[in-house]
Amino acid sequence: MISKLQVAYKNLLRKRVRSLLTLVGIALSSWVLVSLLGFNQGYKTALSKDIDNMGFQLMIMAKGCPYEAATMMLKGGTGLKYMKESIVGEVTKEPDVEKTTPILMAAAFDPNKGESGGVAVYFGVEAKTFSEMKPFFKFRKGGWFTQDHAYEAVMGYEAAELEQREVGDMILIPEKNIQFKVVGILARTGTQDDGTIFIPLKTAQKVFGKPDEITTLGIKVKKGIDSARLEEKLYSLQDVQVVSMAQVKDTIMKLISTAKVMVLSIAMIAILIAMVGVINTILTSVWERFQEIGILKTIGAMPGTYSS
Amino acid sequence: MASPVKAVIVALFLVLGGSPAAWGAVGCDLNDPDRDVARLFPGSSGYKTTYVSIDRKGGEALLAKVETKLGDKFHGLYETIDVPYTIYEILGNKKKVGYIHGVNQKGQFGGIQVFLALDLEGTIKAFYIQKMTSQHAGKLRDAKFGRQFIGLNLKDFESYDVVSGKASGKVEGINNPAPEAESDFRAALRATKKNLVLMDEFVYLPQAASSPGGSQKQ
Predict the structure, then answer these.
(1) Are the beta carbons of A195 and B23 separated by less than 8 Å?
(2) Which of B23, B105, B138 sits opposite A162 (nearest CB)?
(3) Residue B140: closest CA among chain A residues belongs to which residue?
(4) Which of A5, A51, B23, B103 has the fewest CB atoms found within 10 Å of its own CB?
(5) Whose CA is closest to B188, among A290, A260, B51, B196?
(6) Alpha carbon of residue B156 to chain centroid
(7) Is A74 helix (H, G, I), strand (E, B) or coil?
């Protein structure tokens, strides 16, 4: 008498090609399943990391700003909405606020970028407050601006790579015809900062004709404080909108979960195909042996005999 | 509370903000290959794209050879042995009719991307600066400037000294339309020579070596 496992093993060896093809089918289905789930998880993690690396939990923008900011990024449009820099003082007074960092985002059209021109985006930031929000920033070369009004630039890794800039090189804002000296190149962060050119906030305000104005205020909430409560409080400020990173993250995750359903459906189809394949193989091998077992029975074989 | 729509737009802004994708990698690709290939190679019916790097093609030995032929060392943070180069193999009625190849070059205020359309012998059919940041970029990107390169090949550029900018023969005849931007003009010439040298090493010399007779074309 041989064990059931031995029977199964012997059966696999009886039709080697069939067994191999079944194994390949199972392996391919597993690979599709793991790849799809891995992609889904990786995408989710990367987006989550991108948002966490913003460094702040709340963002204040002038009303209408996010829409136009997105347009500016996607289509090269301009006409951003601005808010007074004095808002920084008002927000900082809030006891729940740990840190703030004002940002002026500006774009300049470069007619010599590609066939029909392109837009270069600049972030006017305060070196001190912005770097506090981004403790993970490391410089590949150089460092932050030497002065608040300096005509100096810090470039993200990919921005510097594309523009072939090194510390000490100059960059030009074509529309304004103003030169900046590159004083720092950031190490790769894997976030949107890699493609960004940072210039001092005060200089950006001067160059782009927006004195005492900003487009965004990043807010870091004190530890243990409910950011939703602060968000509600900040809504009392006039002509601004408060965007919570938690909500942005939630929205993205909801979008991802829709995609996840689709991905899982595809994975389920892959599993079903594999299952049908395996069932088909088993049934075929059983049906093939009906005659064989029948003959054995007619000559007196008992149930235990077939497997021996 | 912020509306979900607003949050989506902000999310879009955050994800696309700074447009890292638009910055591309270290390589040099055509922004719109379908449009650009048709424009740079009139009459072409399609193209195939291949990627090569000095590192994979021949390593340090090839780098040394390229530098010798260029007459200058690869320098800076971004002119490195592992830069991926995109070669567009141009097809006309399913037959190979030429190549388009671009290189990055450090300019005065930013990266310059110089593309050459080459025939099967390595002669320039079209010259195109895809990107250049300069007050005088318009003059150097003008078709009139590019036309001066048509008909030239690596042999013509061999005597061009990329370090001193000294030229002789046909290259000497290339007129700088923007004397104020001399460094960018020189950068464009260095990029052209680098482009021709790389194409010679990546495509023309291996082809000549594998063709019947196996003679090497310079």
Answers:
(1) yes
(2) B23
(3) A112
(4) A5
(5) B196
(6) 17
(7) helix
Q: Which of A164, A165, A199, A230 to mutate to test the interface with B (most CBs of B within 10 A)?
A: A164
Shortest Cα distance from A212 to chain B (angstroms)?
23
> Rounded to whole angstroms, how far apart are CA atoms A128 and A115?
38
| Residue in A70, A158, A166 nearest the CB of B23 | A158
Q: How far is residue B144's CA from residue B125's CA, in Å, rounded to a whole number?
A: 14
> Residue-wise pLDDT tens for chain A (308 aa)?
567 788 778 777 887 888 888 888 888 888 888 888 788 778 777 777 777 777 778 888 887 645 555 555 444 445 578 889 988 988 888 888 989 999 998 888 888 887 778 888 899 999 999 998 888 899 999 999 999 999 999 999 989 988 999 999 999 998 888 999 999 999 998 878 888 999 999 999 999 999 999 988 999 888 888 778 888 888 888 788 888 877 777 777 777 778 778 878 888 888 888 888 888 888 887 788 788 888 888 888 887 776 55
Q: The complex's ipTM?
A: 0.77
User: What pTM was estimated for this model as a whole?
Assistant: 0.73
Look up residue B72 and give its DSSP letter: S
Distance CA B82, CA B26 (A): 9
B165 is written with which tokens? 């900018």
Chain B residues touching A253 at Cβ < 8 A: none
To the nearest whole Å, the CA of A244 is away from the closest chain B CA by: 8
Contacts of A250 in chain B (CB under 8 A): 7
One-letter amino acid at B211 equals S
Distance (Å, whole) CA A51 – CA A49: 5
Question: Do B15 and A47 count as a contact with CB atoms less than 8 A apart?
Answer: yes
End-to-end alpha carbon distance in chain A: 5
Kind of pairing between the strands at A178-186 and A152-155: parallel
Six-digit token string for A273 = 């195909």
Q: Determine the 3-state secondary structure of B17 from DSSP.
A: coil
List the single residue in B19, B35, B110 with the smallest CB-CB distance to A164. Answer: B110
Q: Residue B72: name the closest of B136, B166, B152, B143 by CA.
A: B166
Tokens of A271: 């599993």
Answer for the pair B8, A247: CB distance below 8 angstroms, yes or no: no
